[in-house]
Specification:
The chain is of the alpha/beta class. The chain folds into 2 domains: 2-39 and 213-354, no CATH class; 42-211, abc type-2 transporter like fold (3-Layer(aba) Sandwich). The chain has helices at residues 2-16, 19-36, 58-69, 82-90, 104-109, 128-152, 166-178, 180-190, 217-241, 250-278, 284-308, 312-329, 341-347; strands at residues 41-43, 47-53, 74-78, 96-100, 118-120, 209-211. Helix 3 (58-69) links the parallel strand 2 and strand 3 (74-78). The longest helix has 29 residues, at 250-278.
Length: 355
């Protein structure tokens, strides 16, 4: 046991001074620090849309504020004439344009929808029905509760006839949402706020997301751990060929083989664990469990390789081929296995695939 501990200590020192090992450790730490300092960004299509709102009611002002601040694939901005709307759309400064006529909100509340929003698009406009849906949704949210109040509240309770405060209006909105089909069906079915509006069921929320620049740090860590285990295997085969372990028994030689691989795995595995914790790759307990399993698999793989290639000369001839195949099939930078089941089966023979 003393021999094994001594060799483990010696191998740790030998491993830590190797240039390749130092570069792997430094690369992992540098990538992790860089990744942590990359800001999250909103990845969006960010399509501009122009609005000319001629209505000057309070509801109209609320609509302007809400739609200009909302998060969607469209960015809405306002102009002050119909000519500006047309010019912006024709010049492709805006993808789509809307004109809201004067008195529009009051007309809607009275269910007089002959005065409609005008929409301008061109053949190059992207997702115009999505813009229509966003605008309609916001108009509906502003107008619908007051339609409910104006045309249906009198038959329910005289309570609703008085001016509503903020909390009562919120309660009214909730009541309306629960009964939207029954209450507002006439407005939805018989008319529309848009000229030539089309029903749109596009799920545009998937087009906007908060994300972060991807760096394959976990896969790189898996590759480095695998390379480190091969370095330990090579060190053992080198010492064996120098007849350093000639007087050791077969059992001791096998344990020494494991101690070399373990000494190479420990520093890189610990560094990888800390780096992956730093970038919050996954839950710490899950990460620890996966790291232990992966290190055990890599260690076993290296032991098997060292038993099959029981010569340092043969090992060094096979090593470049093994590393290239690992890069290609284990999905370190690009997972081609997800496109082909045969390649995916080949990938199972390379440990980084499992991490």
């Amino acid at each position: 046991m003393r021999l094994l501990i001594n060799r483990l200590y010696v191998m740790l020192k030998r491993t830590m001074i190797q240039p390749l090992y130092i570069v792997m450790l430094a690369t992992l730490i540098t990538l992790s620090v860089v990744y942590v300092n990359i800001p999250s960004k909103e990845k969006s299509l960010y399509i501009p849309a122009v609005i000319y709102n001629m209505d000057d009611s309070e509801l109209s002002k609320e609509f302007n504020e809400e739609i200009s601040e909302m998060t969607s694939i469209y960015h809405f901005y306002f102009v002050y004439s119909e000519d500006e709307v047309i010019n912006d759309v024709l010049s492709e400064k805006a993808n789509v344009g809307f004109i809201i006529p004067k008195g529009f909100f009051d007309d809607c509340i009275s269910l007089n929808t002959s005065n409609k929003v005008i929409e301008y698009t061109t053949n190059s406009s992207r997702l115009p029905t999505v813009a229509r849906e966003i605008v309609f949704s916001q108009l509906f949210d502003e107008i619908a509760p007051l339609i409910y109040k104006s045309h249906y509240a009198s038959s329910v309770k005289s309570y609703y006839k008085k001016t509503l405060d903020k909390n009562e209006l919120a309660e009214l909105r909730e009541t309306f949402n629960l009964n939207a089909d029954e209450v507002f069906s006439t407005y939805q079915q018989n008319s529309s706020v848009f000229k030539n509006v089309e029903e749109n069921k596009s799920n545009y929320t998937e087009l906007t997301e908060v994300t972060k620049t991807e760096l394959p740090i976990r896969k790189i860590a898996a590759l480095f751990i695998f390379v480190a285990s091969l370095i330990g295997t090579s060190a053992y085969l080198t010492d064996k060929e120098k007849k350093i372990y000639m007087r050791a028994s077969k059992k001791d030689r096998f344990m020494l083989r494991i101690s070399h691989i373990t000494a190479s795995l420990l520093p890189i595995s610990l560094t990888s664990f800390i780096c992956l914790l730093l970038i919050k790759e996954m839950h710490p307990v899950t990460l620890l469990f996966r790291m232990l399993i992966y290190v055990a698999v890599v260690g076993l793989y290296s032991v098997i390789i060292s038993l099959i290639l029981n010569s340092n000369r043969i090992f060094y001839k096979v090593l470049p081929v093994l590393l290239i195949l690992t890069l290609v099939f284990s999905g370190v930078f690009f997972d081609i296995g997800k496109y082909n089941s045969f390649i995916r089966n080949i990938s199972l023979f390379f440990p980084p695939y499992y991490f």
